[in-house]
Design goal:
Length: about 375
């Protein structure tokens, strides 16, 4: 039985009890944890009739209307490979996007976010109109050459087919390289649009394809071929590019610990990678580890002495290191100054105590002498 047939038939014999909703049935009968307040859940369970608009997110920023119904029970899942026919227009009817057979992996933001979300709610062979607010389309930047900033786009989309993703284990090295680099390039596109979180998502997916597992039997068989060894080396180099780009995106989100791990992954294989050294220096700088950052950037400067960016960063760190050193000196001086004062006070206290003791002894001796003289006078009187 095929996956599609299974989707169509697995629930045919399960009746929905009268007076219950699909949400109740799924939650109570199938023991699935369904949140009826989630907008995506509502959109998925409450299929609108043709000619009715579905407000996917519940805020009017992403709407879908079915023009032609597709095959029931054939909605794609995340990571499925979908083939789409797309026509995108502006409000005035100008066509700004057109694709006859666009292949995407659902959930990997290989299209704008609005389409990625809406296609997940389509059946195979369905045709739908999708209205996408700028926030989930091309935003304030627009897209050259013909999509202006802050443009709402009206799409007509047909989901031609949906297939399961091929397992990475059965892909050849060249296939993994091709797919991984496609996802890396998409991550670069999101990064240039100042969407680092989406870029990170793409880079992580790229790494899944560019990280061959050496324990795989097929992989062990392949490495016996010297040609495959060359391909694996190329795969390694592409992987380092992804880690480098991933660290840059993580830095932009201020995830400095994660960025440091990414850049260390590069340096563990390529200790003289200038980009990685430069980014590691900047990460350490942001973490406040100025001395370590300076030493790391010195290594980068030796490899690329003409780099203005490295020299500028070194200049800043040199000044900060000088300030740090001066601050430490001031702290030590304060500590030493406090000790001197304590010693002086203790000396003064000791001297005071000595003076008091001497005074007491002196007055004691004087008092004793006077007493002896008086006794002598009295004895003289009585005896004379």
């Amino acid at each position: 039985m095929t996956v599609e047939t299974f989707k169509n038939t697995e629930m045919e014999d399960e009746p929905v009890h009268p007076g219950t909703t699909q949400t109740d049935f799924i939650k109570n009968e199938l023991n699935f944890d369904v949140d009826p307040n989630d907008p995506m859940t509502n959109a998925a369970l409450n299929d609108p009739q043709p000619e009715e608009w579905m407000d996917i997110l519940g805020n009017g920023q992403l709407r879908k209307k079915v023009i032609r119904k597709g095959k029931n029970g054939t909605r794609p899942n995340r990571s499925d490979m979908c083939t789409l026919k797309i026509v995108g227009k502006l409000k005035d009817g100008t066509i700004v996007e057109e694709h006859e057979n666009l292949k995407i992996q659902l959930g990997d933001v290989e299209v704008i976010q609005g389409l990625d979300l809406a296609v997940a709610l389509m059946d195979v062979e369905e045709v739908a109109e999708i209205e996408v607010d700028p926030r989930f389309a091309y935003g304030q930047l627009g897209k050259d050459p013909n999509i202006p900033p802050d443009a709402t786009i009206f799409y007509t989309v047909e989901l031609k087919s949906s297939e399961l993703e091929e397992e990475i284990e059965i892909l050849s090295i060249s296939q993994r390289k091709e797919i991984g680099n496609k996802k890396r390039e998409r991550g670069n596109w999101w990064f240039t649009r100042n969407e680092p979180t989406l870029a990170i998502q793409c880079y992580r997916r790229a790494l899944e394809f560019l990280l061959p597992t050496e324990s795989r039997a097929s992989y062990q068989h392949e490495v016996e071929d010297s040609t495959i060894d060359a391909e694996l080396q190329a795969l390694l180099e592409d992987r380092m590019k992804v880690y480098n780009n991933l660290s840059a995106a993580q830095m932009r989100t201020q995830a400095y610990d994660a960025a440091l791990k990414s850049v260390e992954s590069v340096l563990s294989c390529q200790p003289q990678n200038v980009k990685a050294l430069f980014r590691k220096g900047k990460i350490l700088h942001h973490k406040g580890e100025h001395a370590s950052a300076y030493q790391t950037l010195l290594q980068a400067a030796k490899l690329e002495p003409e780099s203005k960016a490295i020299q500028a960063e070194l200049t800043i760190l040199k000044q900060k290191n000088a300030k740090d050193a001066q601050h430490e000196k001031n702290l030590y001086r304060k500590m030493l100054g406090t000790n001197k004062n304590n010693n002086a006070l203790s000396k003064i206290t000791k001297n005071d105590n000595k003076s008091k003791i001497t005074s007491k002894l002196t007055w004691g001796l004087i008092g004793g002498g006077v007493s002896a003289a008086l006794v002598g006078v009295l004895l003289y009187r009585f005896t004379s």
